User: What shape does this take?
Amino acid sequence: MQNDIALFSELCDAIFEAETNQPVAKPIPTSELYQQLDLSLNNDGIIDDELKIILKDVIKSTPKTASKSFFNQLFGGRIGKAALGDLIAVLLNNSMYTYKVAGPQVGIEKQVLKSICHLAGYSNDSDGTLAPGGSISNMMALIMARDHKNKSIRAEGLLNSMTLYTSRESHYSISKNAALTGIGRNHVRLVNTNAKGEMLTEHLDELIKKDINDGYKPFFVNATAGTTVLGAFDDIVAISKVCKKYKLWLHVDGAYCGGVIFSNLYKHLVNGLELSDSFSVNAHKMLGTPLSCSVIVTQHREQLHHSFSNEADYLYQTDGDDYNLGKTSLQCGRRNDALKLWTLWKSVGTKGLEKIVDKQFEMAKIARDYINEHKDYTLYSFNDSISICFNYKGITANELCTALYENSELLVGFGKFEENEFVRMVTINTELEKEDILAFFKTIESFVSAHLLNLSAS
Ligand SMILES: Cc1ncc(COP(=O)(O)O)c(C=O)c1O
Assistant: This one.
């Protein structure tokens, strides 16, 4: 193992060097992937020196999500103390299902959950768990809501047509989860949004009323704190009134921007969160931990247990349910995702996490201001969002983003809202500074002026 630690350290240097020298790795066309890299698996193994060469090649060609040229997704950057926690978790290799095999790591996870419940304004009777990602956190919320509506579903399966509600701008996992949990995609009602991409509560009410009249059983509403494309926040207070009226479970999907609970400046964006039944937040997005670190909490501790516990004599042999976390998780064997968030939180404090979140909004404002001040740009997103959606000189967003990628200039993606397609730049990497944001725009401008003839206007 000592040799491998030394090798790891050398490879870390290779990663850091590649990030600096070539922040956007030269993409390998999929048709050439296996010709360019030795990815084969063979009967005989190889010596360390050969392995090192291959690993360095793979590292060189792998997209660098921690670089300052990565704006493509809703994660990015690298925070040392969080990475440290994850590396320790890998070496310790505990499974979080029992206190017997995870010991104090259970206490760490429970502390993270308790502190998040507290920030969400949840009562002392709340609880939660960590899921493999925001999609699965949403699924766990949906399962709790389904079982809460009818306690016999866990044993009998679905007997009625149950319907759920989410905005057109919400994440695709809501529909996918409806298919996975027996609810059915056709029982997902997409609620219209206003011009800023926020759910229209009147439409929600109409859809529910119609379903009740038609004999369906509404049970679940998903509100989004930071929609995937525009970064819009649904009005939780207004939605919770509708949920109360019809006795529906309210989940707040904060995978993208639920991290605002750490910020005194921005927590107003999730006003009313304490009125929700469950809330999920991805620390691997706004809080900058490595993938994946998704937290789901609920005000219904009993429901979490009811929906996810299962007796297993061969597993639960010591300690009570409170410390055997497998009784409230989706998986059986489960990696320790809490430690990276705890290490970060412990080292920078809640105030440090607040700074991490605020910085992203500050950088987003710099980007929006730049766009507003330059007439060749059109802005499509709004204040209080870290998604900056724009077009440049009317160039088709798809074409521009693809050309920037193929030429190793920038990794940035595109999105759509209503009839507009645009570049979506995300300021989620907390290490970005004003000069990095300006460099992003300068790169686009120089690239377009050099390649303009090859790009078509939309
Ligand atoms: C609003 C929202 N919910 C859920 C998810 C899914 O999270 P994950 O990728 O961790 O499954 C995303 C991902 O971008 C998201 O934007």
In short: Residues 74, 133-135, 138, 171, 173, 224, 226, 228, 253, 255-256, 282, 292, 294 surround pyridoxal-5'-phosphate (CB under 6 Å). Residues 83-344 form a domain with the Aspartate Aminotransferase; domain 2 fold (CATH 3.40.640.10). The longest strand covers residues 217-224. The chain has 15 helices and eleven strands.
